[in-house]
Amino acid sequence: MSVVPAEVLPGGALALEEAAAHAPAELGPRARLWPSLVAVYRAQLSRARVARIPLLFVATFQSVGIMIMMRGVVDSRGEAQSVVAGSSVVVVAYVALNLLAQYFGQLRASGGLDHYATLPVPPASVVLGAAAAYASFTVPGTLVTAVFGCVLFGLPLSNLWILLAVIPLAGAALSGLGAACGLLAPRPELATLLGQLGMSAALLLGVLPPDRMPGIIQFARDLLPSTYGVEAYARTFGARPDWAVVLADLGVCAGVGVLSLAVATWAYRRAAVR
Question: Helix axis angle, 188-207 relative to 226-235, nearest 10°?
Fold first, then answer.
């Protein structure tokens, strides 16, 4: 009778170890959207902390200068409301649309998307985290611009709280557009150009009183998502604001924000796999 070592048996210890060695390793649990978004948001906020003060100064100084120039042009309370509301939202457009388009354009050109592609985070968290971080920079500048404009034009400060809804909703819509422009542009220079054009559109169509615009320009103004944030804020200056219309304008901002961020997420997936 021959003796067979236990290691070579099908159920032996060595056979089990070799089978385990050749078996595919189990992957860890998939990262959830919300914790990943918070992690990306904190990282982006920390990275851009050094540049926060110059960004706030430039965006706020630009909007305050516009209101000072328009002070001698507007001649009615309705026009003053449009100027103050539009100048406040321009701060959001400068950072969320212009700078975010430049950031994602440079990130794509330098290969920085490869770093995010290796992280175990959903693509939506990268776009939403970066958009939220850039939109956060606009809060102090928007509030300062709104307060200065109300004092300059003699408008009430009682409904200034509506900016707590206008800033994130208009910022989401514009951030999605800015991120999509940066991710879809084939060159970073083109991404910068698209961001500048978008900010210029938000500036001209949002600050100038709509009653003085030609019909075709008013139609273009209605296509700009930040217009509804401007209208929502401007309506609150009245003695008896129509809150149903204000909520409808904010709802349009929210809907466009969801759509634009979805397009930006698709553009991120498309750019990351190339």
Answer: 30
84, 146 in Cβ contact below 8 A?
Answer: yes
What integer pLDDT is reported at residue 88 of this predicted model?
93
Torsion of CA 161, 163, 166, 170, to 10 degrees: -160
Q: What is the pLDDT of residue 150?
A: 94
Query: Tokens for 40?
Result: 């990306």
Amino acid present at 99: L
Cβ proximity of 146 and 164 under 8 Å: no
Query: What's the pTM?
Result: 0.82
- Least Cα distance to 175 among 186, 185, 165, 167 occurs for 167
Q: How many helices (H) and strands (E) does the chain have?
A: 13, 0
Report how far residue 250's alpha carbon sits from residue 82's, in angstroms, rounded to the nearest whole number: 16
Cα–Cα distance, 165 to 168 (Å, whole number)? 6
Q: How far apart (Å, rounded) are the C-alpha atoms in residues 268 and 179? A: 8
CB 233 within 8 A of CB 81: no
Q: What b/e sequence results for 184-195 when a residue is b if at least 16 CB atoms lie within 10 Å of its CB, and e otherwise?
A: bbeebeebbbbb
Chain centroid, CA 93 distance in Å: 9
Distances from the Cα of 209 to the Cα of 43, 77, 119, 204, angstroms:
39, 11, 46, 9
Give the helix, strand, coil percentages of the chain, each rounded to 5. Answer: 80, 0, 20
With vertex at residue 159, the alpha carbon angle to CA 157 and CA 162, rounded to the nearest 5 degrees, is 125
- Tens digits of per-residue pLDDT, 228-249? 999 999 999 988 889 999 999 9
Using CA atoms, how far apart are residues 102 and 198, in angstroms rounded to an integer?
12
